[in-house]
């Protein structure tokens, strides 16, 4: 396998770090070298076989570390190739925990480390119909569907950059706003570190399936 100079340098640095953590540095061995000079402890009552075993154990340890480093390097190289191949290419997101698309669109698509989530309404994935109740129940379900799609795209509510909320009656928006705020505050980031996403809210004359609220989002990917 051919490694780039950067990877080889990283391998050498990690090997040196490992050696420095496991004992004195290993020097060239000559017939006149002392046991202590090569990092081997030689008690008076030990035999040469004990010293050989100690050296063998260190060699095995270093070999294991090198194998792990090489394996991790290969994994990262493959991941890099995948990311490069996906750059500028849209990838479909499909979560089994969110409603299937009811038209010619995807639940979401990923492009250049971002995920674009289609509008989510209060559909229960298990029934394919709107949840029973009013705008409160529909908002809760719409946010659940949004969360499921974000998770499937390796994202989260903490990485949402922009949302758009559509309602059929702005007079009921206070209910939606309260539930939306609670949804964001329950993420991994809280308090002063919480960055609320940008948002647009509009009133529309009607929404698919007679829904009362719809929410779409754009978010970053881990």
What does this protein structure show overall?
The chain folds into two domains: about 5-25 and about 35-85, no CATH class; about 90-220, RutC-like (60s Ribosomal Protein L30, Chain: A, 2-Layer Sandwich), CATH 3.30.1330. The protein has helices at about 5-20, 50-85, 135-150, 175-185, and strands at about 90-95, 110, 115-120, 160-165, 200-205, 215-220. It has four helices and six strands, in the order H-H-E-E-E-H-E-H-E-E. The protein has a six-stranded mixed beta sheet with strand order 1-2-3-6-4-5, covered by helices on one side. With about 220 residues, the protein is of the alpha+beta class. It starts with a helix and ends with a strand. Helix 1 (about 5-20) runs antiparallel to helix 2 and helix 3 (about 135-150) packs parallel to helix 4.
CATH uppermost class of the largest domain: Alpha Beta
Number of strands: 6
Shape: elongated
Number of domains: 2
Question: What is this structure, in a nutshell?
Answer:
The protein has 4 helices and 6 strands. With 222 residues, it is α+β, with helices and mostly antiparallel strands. The protein folds into 2 domains: 74 residues, no CATH class; 130 residues, 60s Ribosomal Protein L30, Chain: A, CATH 3.30.1330.
């Amino acid at each position: 396998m051919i490694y780039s100079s950067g990877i080889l340098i990283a391998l050498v640095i990690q090997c040196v770090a490992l050696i420095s953590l496991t004992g004195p540095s290993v020097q060239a061995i000559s017939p006149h070298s002392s046991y202590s000079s090569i990092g081997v402890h030689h008690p008076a009552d030990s035999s040469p076989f004990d010293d050989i075993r100690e050296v063998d154990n260190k060699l095995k340890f270093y070999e294991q570390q090198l194998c792990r480093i090489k394996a991790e390097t290969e994994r990262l190289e493959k991941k890099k190739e995948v990311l490069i191949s996906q750059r500028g290419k849209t990838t479909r997101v499909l979560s089994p925990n969110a409603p299937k698309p009811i038209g010619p669109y995807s639940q979401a698509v990923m492009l250049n480390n971002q995920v674009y989530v289609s509008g989510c309404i209060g559909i229960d994935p298990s029934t394919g119909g709107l949840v029973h109740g009013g705008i409160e129940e529909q908002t809760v379900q719409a946010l659940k569907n949004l969360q499921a799609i974000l998770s499937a795209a390796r994202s989260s509510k903490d990485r949402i950059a922009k949302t758009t909320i559509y309602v059929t009656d702005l007079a009921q928006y206070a209910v939606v706003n309260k539930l939306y705020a609670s949804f964001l505050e329950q993420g991994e980031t809280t308090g002063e570190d919480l960055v609320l996403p940008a948002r647009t809210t509009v009133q529309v004359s009607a929404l698919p399936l007679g829904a009362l609220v719809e929410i779409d989002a754009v978010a970053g990917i881990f």
